[in-house]
Write a structure and sequence with these properties.
The chain is about 25% helix and about 30% strand. The chain has two domains: about 35-95, no CATH class; about 105-245, no CATH class. It has five helices and 13 strands. Strands 6-5-7-8-9-10 form a six-stranded mixed beta sheet. The N and C termini lie far apart (about 90 Å). A hairpin with a 4-residue loop joins strand 8 (about 175-180) and strand 9.
Length: about 250
Amino acid sequence: MKKKIIIFLTTLIIILIGTGIITNYADTGRVTTNHEPKYCFKLINKEENKITYIGLGYKVVRYVKESIDEPYENNIGVKMGSWFMKYTSPIDSNNQDTKIKTLNDFYNTTATKDNDIRILRKEYSTADAIKDNCFASFNSGIYNEEVYNSFMEKYKNKETAFIRVGNTTIEGDLMLYDILYYEPENKVYLVTDFTRDVYGSEREIELTEYENLSEYTYENKSYLVLYNGELNEETFYSSSVNIVAFLSK
């Protein structure tokens, strides 16, 4: 009985090895000619825009630029190797940052990775914000202006730059804004956190993108604004403009 089990296992191993060699050869040809591997299980990772194909003793890792639903030939990087092969996106390895589409992307850049707003406790206060070098434009005054000046200098020079801005509601509730000018895309990204607004929801954190950031004077008061399209007196209070801080009281 024991001998039969050994023979069965040996035969099974030989069959698997033979099948692995054949499918590996076939899929190598397909990958080399920019075709999707055929004899694999497909694992999809939407967050990383990565598709992993698992075959018998080998795997293929494919990265896409926009969506995992794109045609196979639209990939931005493919590598084939053993099950133990490691392969990261060419965008990640060259730029250390990725295209920003989600909050995870926003807080995964070299400028923001140590400043994830999502880990702040709900009791985080205006005093905490001032202590943590947040550029604060509160009812009581403006604080940490040097942080703001440094950010604006980088932005004007088209260098990737990050700043956290604090503002307060009329009632004095803290509102936080994380602003990232992202040089690879020449865009401004904004994360708003209204968690501490008593009239807001339990946890209200959102990501939006803008074309421009500017200081703007309206009715003799100076503001920091993010906007798309034109910025003028007619558009100042439109949905295309987001006022994040008062620069003068």
